[in-house]
Amino acid sequence: MEAESIEKSNAREEAVQDAVDRAHKMKEAAINAMNNADANEAAYAAQEAAAAAAEAKQIAAEQELDYNVQDIASTAVNSADEAQYAAYMAEQYQAAAEAQAAAEAEAARQQAEAEAAYAAAQQQAAAEAAQQEQAAQQQTEAAAQDQETQQTEVQQPQAEQAQQETQTPETSAPETEAPADNSTTDTTGSATDSSAPTDSDYTGDVPQSASSSSLRQSVVNYALQFVGNPYVYGGTSLTNGTDCSGFTQSVLANFGISIPRTAASQAGSGTAVDMSNLQPGDLLFYNNGGGIGHVSMYIGNGQVVHASNERTGIIVSSVDYRTACAARSYF
Q1: Phi-psi region for residue 300, left (φ > 0), alpha (ψ -120 to 50) or beta?
Q2: Which residues partner with 298 through β-bridges?
Q3: Number of neighbouring beta carbons within 10 Å of residue 142
Q4: Closest Cα to residue 168, out of 121, 214, 136?
Q5: What is the DSSP letter of 169?
Q6: Would you list the DSSP string of 232-250?
Q7: Residue 181 and residue 192: Cα distance in Å, rounded?
Q8: Tens digits of per-residue pLDDT, 147-179?
Q9: CA proximity to 73, closest of 22, 141, 16, 125
Q10: What are the φ/ψ torsions at residue 282 (nearest 5 degrees)?
């Protein structure tokens, strides 16, 4: 009987110790979950520790006089209590972490909205500024066009009068019967009119020994014959249509003076002339904002003749209808 009692006592102690070990293990798990703010895991560990402690207490109750078993069982109960406290703290930590995460998410959302609103405002301001700049540019261009039109309407009669005063009867080219196809193509691909006056049929007073001033006046007289003829972009025909640089090139070519084709190239050749010392026949150049974009010929008396645009054609204008940026002489 004594051996059997010892065996049973040992078995009870082992059973209680096993329950204590499980309770301790669950307490450690609950503490770890608390440190990770994992309330669910901590609650599960506390529940398992409580079950192990209850089992230990039940075994100890079967043998109240076995004080060793009672001490071991009380250890399990302590572990279960600690696990329960860890579960409570884990719940608090998890709630605090979730609240902090929610606050950070809300702050990030508000910042993103503020940044998006700022970017939209900047874009709107840029668009409005661009529209205002475009409107101002259009108004400036329209005003300049109106001014040029008014100047053309005023200066056209003056040009006709100047032409009548300076042109001698002999300067008109004799009328000839035009061939079936009287246009040829120059090296730039632009159509040139073979019916335009040339050296051979120009009857102006241009003797071989003529002075420079006489030659200049002859060039001006010749150029004024074509006032009223059309403007054609890329053209070089003084009668059928020419652009500004084609006009100056063709007029000077009639007197054996060769100059480049474009206004920019013409502005880079010849001899520079002071704007305060212009002479008839000198070329004036104008900047269009991206470089030389227009050329005219000075005819004296503060006037120029030029192929202006498709609406006005070849006209006479005041020398200051636009501000010239350079002047060149090819004489």
Answers
A1: left
A2: 304
A3: 10
A4: 214
A5: G
A6: -TT-EETTTEE-HHHHHHH
A7: 11
A8: 666 666 555 565 555 555 544 443 333 333 333
A9: 16
A10: -70, 150
